[in-house]
Amino acid sequence: MQPAERRTNVSEAVLAAMRQTNALFDSEVVGKKNIEALDRVYTANARILPPGAPMVEGRPAIKAFWKQAIAAMGATSAKLATVNAESAGEGVVEIGRADILAGGQTVTVKYVVHWKQEDGAWKWDLDIWNLNE
Amino acid sequence: MQPAERRTNVSEAVLAAMRQTNALFDSEVVGKKNIEALDRVYTANARILPPGAPMVEGRPAIKAFWKQAIAAMGATSAKLATVNAESAGEGVVEIGRADILAGGQTVTVKYVVHWKQEDGAWKWDLDIWNLNE
């Protein structure tokens, strides 16, 4: 997936806030296994649609999912990069790419996140991903 | 995935137009292998993020993808149902469920579609999916 044709109409300030949230997921959640930091990553009513599992609704259930998934994968970092970001009303629809380091191997994931503002921060309200292979 | 907590704030007229597009995909594209009907399903600059393949951009490439994928699966129908639809600016962000009949078996897919209006019709501008198992 090439980050070629960006159709970004999102301000640099919002993109920077998004990068901050993504960095939290990488360093705090995946890096330090600080699952409670997901409070600052997902909205309270967020939903995730993981491959290989049914939809998971609400932050407590999402925390339980990631706690288990990060341990099962042995993930130590997750570098997220925006491929395309588009304003959509009060939110942003993002296409992204994640490089997850787990057990010495890098797994590349593509995803769509519907971002919303909550408590002044930009967070993931809807998150779905899959693998290229 | 239970269609329980719907947070729909989309008008019944738009939901009906969405059902019409979804029905086209089922009856024309998957049912009759009329790949050209994808003109009425996807926007011209749509992107799809299929599991097991890189992102596909633009309607011609998307047509080639589905022609191959429908044949490879032996799919004969694809029943799409909206689980949640939310207005997002001029578009709609939908969580949905697809039951795809292929070779006597039903494969259940969950998806997120970012809908936009094009030429007076509601179409898929961004489409990502994965399987529960």
Helix and strand arrangement:
The structure is a homodimer of 133-residue chains.
Chain A: H1 12-31, E1 42-49, E2 56-57, H2 59-73, E3 75-88, E4 91-102, E5 105-118, E6 121-131
Parallel strand pairs in A: 1-6
Antiparallel strand pairs in A: 1-2, 3-4, 4-5, 5-6
Short description:
2 copies of one chain form a homodimer. With 133 residues, the first copy, chain A, is an alpha+beta fold.
What does the model show?
Two copies of one chain form a homodimer. With 133 residues, chain A is of the alpha+beta class. Chain A has two helices and six strands; from the N terminus they run αββαββββ. Chain A has helices at residues 12-31, 59-73, and strands spanning 42-49, 56-57, 75-88, 91-102, 105-118, 121-131. Chain A has a six-stranded mixed beta sheet, with helices on one face. In chain A, a hairpin with a 6-residue loop joins strand 1 and strand 2. Chain A is globular, with a radius of gyration of 14 Å. The two termini of chain A are 12 Å apart. Mean pLDDT of chain A is 94; it is low at 1-5. The A-B interface holds A 1, 5, 7, 45, 47, 49-55, 57, 83-84, 86-89, 91, 93, 95, 110-112, 114, 126, 128-133 and B 1, 5, 7, 45, 47, 49-55, 57, 83-84, 86-89, 91, 93, 95, 110-112, 114, 126, 128-133.
